[in-house]
């Protein structure tokens, strides 16, 4: 970002845990496995870590992870913005290392949602009934998580003529990428017809418009350019970051169902990085549902509002397409343990290091990781680069 | 929606619709629906109408009063829920969850009843009807406004 020389924030190591099914591991052990691997990747040990950033579904979550891992950090962050949390945690960690408050921040995520819930597709278990505080207003009607995204999808279709087949194209492309990822939860190729003929969960979203439910975790190490100079990996620079929110759990409080917080976080992050959407070589975009990606490519400015359906068609999100996206297979096919944001960052870094394997984008120099949290409630954009700004 | 019997083999009695617990912000809203009136907040400074109930106007932070709404609105968006494991909702599948824009401006979430789920359309005119869910609360459902 704009730090004094030497203290520019970089990502010096990344890793994923094993996934997608970890019945033999606790949630905290998944954090541990991801952390071990990210530190090894960075050429560091736990003794080097002086900051911890992580979040989960309990208050004082980061404190608990620190205790479990035997860390006594001088910097803690557990900001929870749902699925976008890890983009926000890396943004905060970047500010903190650039300010000189901390030198090495371990950012971890771990979840065993699949083993706990026993479901393989994110089509929502229950929904509705009780909710604390103002969330009660939208909770009385039996709406589900999928139903909230379905409301946005229906409205997008109404305003812009987006079709179920265009939404399906997102799932098809993610599955094509997943075929190259040996860890991916779903690797069998699917067609647009498979998606639109799969069971409707909440009209207009079908079963195959929904992400998988997985066990898994991931981690990264945020430190300074100066520190990374002595480490084995080429650093990846945090060029810019920003986040935004439009509402919490009440879809009735979202000003427009077709305009997400990405419309604020994207332009702000790009401006801070000094780039435009045209400069982005590869994107990792939160894909809880197919509609999430269509809205995100529009709101980040990769195409005009309303043109997201056409943008994602015909392999637009695939290698060689308009914007190679979710090169690991995404949450729709590879892994979605509940808050996928950390995986987006790991895959973005791997692409910038040229470690993308069969789905490597040639000469990728600038990557975007964009998380979406809640019910399209929060958006957080990270711009990462191979070269120093 | 009115058939509250469970799926075949479920011998338990039908579970009632959940009832909100009124608080300082919402008591008048739920009480209004209990008495068959849809009320919204009106800002006494800038005349904005708003829901959900809050302690201040979202436009100018001015003070609010409760006013009765016409109960007429249009469907802004909707979905037909075909999977929900939570009771009582699973007993109603398929049912419609919708966002309705009231004539006065505010938007709320509700169920559309009184027609087949597949008949609902964005822009469709709807009208409020009320269901008492506790001694102190009612809720507004909507049906096609013929």
What is the topology?
The complex is a heterodimer of chains A (389) and B (146).
Chain A: E1 9-16, H1 27-42, E2 51-53, H2 61-69, E3 75-77, H3 85-99, E4 105-112, H4 113-117, H5 145-160, H6 164-178, H7 192-196, E5 200-202, E6 205-206, E7 215-224, H8 225-228, E8 236-245, H9 262-273, E9 282-285, H10 290-299, H11 308-312, H12 330-334, H13 341-352, E10 366-373, E11 378-385
Parallel strand pairs in A: 2-3, 2-4, 9-10
Antiparallel strand pairs in A: 1-7, 1-8, 4-7, 5-6, 8-11, 10-11
Helix pairs in contact in A: 6-10
Chain B: H1 27-34, E1 39-43, E2 49-50, E3 64-68, E4 72-81, E5 95-102, E6 107-112, E7 125-132, E8 138-144
Antiparallel strand pairs in B: 1-2, 1-3, 4-5, 4-7, 5-6, 7-8
Give your account of this protein's structure:
The complex is a heterodimer of chains A (389) and B (146). With 389 residues, chain A is α/β, with parallel strands linked by helices. Chain A has one domain: Peroxisomal Thiolase, Chain A, domain 1. In chain A, 33% of the residues lie in helices and 17% in strands. Chain A has 13 helices and eleven strands. In chain A, the strands form two sheets. Chain A has a nine-stranded mixed β-sheet with strand order 3-2-4-7-1-8-11-10-9, with helices on both faces. In chain A, strands 5-6 form a two-stranded antiparallel sheet. In chain A, helix 6 crosses helix 10. Chain B is mostly beta strands and 146 residues long. Chain B has one helix and eight strands; from the N terminus they run αββββββββ. In chain B, strand 5 and strand 6 form a beta hairpin. Chain B has a five-stranded antiparallel β-sheet with strand order 6-5-4-7-8. Chain B has one domain. Chains A and B meet through helix 5 and strand 5 of A and strand 4, strand 5 and strand 6 of B.
